[in-house]
Amino acid sequence: ETIDKAQAGGFLVILDGKRNDISSSAEAYARGYLSEIEVAGEVLPSFWNVDALTVNPYLGEDGLRPFVQEAIKHGKGIFVLARTTNPSAAFLQDEGREEKVFVKVAQLAWNMGQNSLGESGRSSVGIVVGATYPEDMRFLRERFPGLLFLIPGVGTQGGDLEALQTSFGADGKGALVNVSRDIIFAFREGPDRDGFRFAQEARDRARFYQQKFWGLLRR
Amino acid sequence: ETIDKAQAGGFLVILDGKRNDISSSAEAYARGYLSEIEVAGEVLPSFWNVDALTVNPYLGEDGLRPFVQEAIKHGKGIFVLARTTNPSAAFLQDEGREEKVFVKVAQLAWNMGQNSLGESGRSSVGIVVGATYPEDMRFLRERFPGLLFLIPGVGTQGGDLEALQTSFGADGKGALVNVSRDIIFAFREGPDRDGFRFAQEARDRARFYQQKFWGLLRR
Fold first, then answer.
1. Rounded to the nearest 5°, which phi and psi values hold at A82?
2. ipTM score here?
């Protein structure tokens, strides 16, 4: 219901599902979130029907392919987890002989999107890059100028707002910065902790970020 | 409903959800699948309430911790994806400087289970190891004699039945071999493709595997 309302209001909805699987199971997830499912011979629209979905790359390319194919087919988007926001992110993502795992993942996402490039030079396949690792974000942007970034970690998780400037492409686009908890829980910082001022506090906090981001882009 | 029936029949139910997330979201997933959730101040039992859940390690230890804690607290189990069954598994899982990623993951799972060791010397935290990579399975068993293995990839995916022998611990236990599609779709190989003989074909195929496995253990 929330998804329907947001889409009716002209917003794109990204589901941070971090899904991952292979062959028939991956196809079922992809259809279930992005397009339509087949039950007992009947085709039903996806219950979720979101515009983009995050996926986890641990299984490699054949775990991502069903998601990417379904996204391209239906004009939806996929964001592959590359550099996550959390403290343990480096444990596995910084491994790698010639190249770190998170860079290999970004390269894979870029390659897999090549047959879905739009007029903007961007594709249906982007990556997730945490704002809590600004150096890695800068490195990835230099290496992949056209890759779409979904950037969590700003706000509650303490990501670096200033460093976001380096996350955008040369055209000032190419990055979607996501702030969730700091906006939806903004009311808890005020005098009213019961949430009666939820909408107002959330709106004010969202405006605060909006102005910050515009400021970054204007420089 | 299927889960309830299986549990009432004395079976343990393992959900292959491959879930992964951090902090509050990971806790919510862990509770939602394994124990109980809190909605608007009310505590409700988990809709799923399975006995064990598979999780994806791409986020590192702090992505696994909420799942492990919830499992230990409620006598449930967690299986961390280490070596998956699919052809692209090596892309990311074979990376690593001193040690391959899938071995690091197995070590992490072993470490995280140390404060939940039971009388058997096994813990609430195991790993997923695909039967399609028998050499890696053998290596992991030698390295981690007490770690519980969940082994998919036998049957439809063509995993090596003979090699399963090396997957068990010294006591002939420690490995759960899972065969799904080859059993539930066994009826499609027979003359009746409409599924009227589903139960019988599935039972026969399951017996076939059961005898194979007993044969392996008797050697």
1. -110, -70
2. 0.92
